Amino acid sequence: xxxxxxxxxxxxxxxxxxxxxxxxTVADDGLVERAFDHAxxxxxxxxxxxxxxxxxxxxxxxxxESKISVFRHLFPSEEQAQRGNRAFETGYAELVGAGHCxxxxxxxxxxxxxxxxxxxxxxxxxxxxPTQQLIIEALGWQQLAxxxxxxxxxxxxxxxxxxxALAALLRTGAADDVRxxxxxxxxxxxxxxxxxxxxxxxxxxxxxxxxxxxxxADGATxxxxxxxxxxxxxxxx
Length: 237
Fold this sequence. Notes:
Elements: E1 16-20, H1 31-42, H2 50-61, H3 67-74, H4 78-97, H5 107-116, E2 120-124, H6 129-139, E3 147-149, H7 163-172, E4 181-185, H8 188-197, E5 201-205, H9 212-217, E6 222-224, H10 230-235
Parallel strand pairs: 1-2, 1-4, 2-3, 4-5, 5-6
Helix pairs in contact: 1-2, 1-4, 3-4, 4-6
């Protein structure tokens, strides 16, 4: 005899939204590349040289990854990687302090609408905690989201590992099932993070580093023009 047990409905409402920052909710406008140029110069990499271009190509490819991991790949010693990462964070902080930091259109309204509907929203980043907080303070977002997490808050591994998304679930207790999780970002590494975490929604946005083809190849279940389209996607589920 066949299995006559009733089929279970596997559809899950979204309860927790994990949102990337730079390129997804915060305008990047080349700040990451400018901060990398600052760091590379500190380590003696000649601007415009083949080595500099190769490194910059890697930075673009790995947008969304923990920055210290990027520097560990680019430089042979831990001392150089740490020095490069510190110089990157300093350069980025200077750019933010000079006013080069703005929310992407619709980002604030999206977060408010999702939270008003009862969803929990967590902001995540590949930057260090101090840089993340600097951005949040520059935007006046201290009370906007429920929680903000950086790689150090998730054991040290950033994207593409699932740790940040799963840490958001564990820290908030907002979901009972990973399928109730939505992970949203502008990079392939964001998509790989969400897919590896088992998120029910892995949404890519076209306002940042990577295009639709890369986002889908790395696990996007949906590709949106911007984060402003997210409430329509999630609240209709």
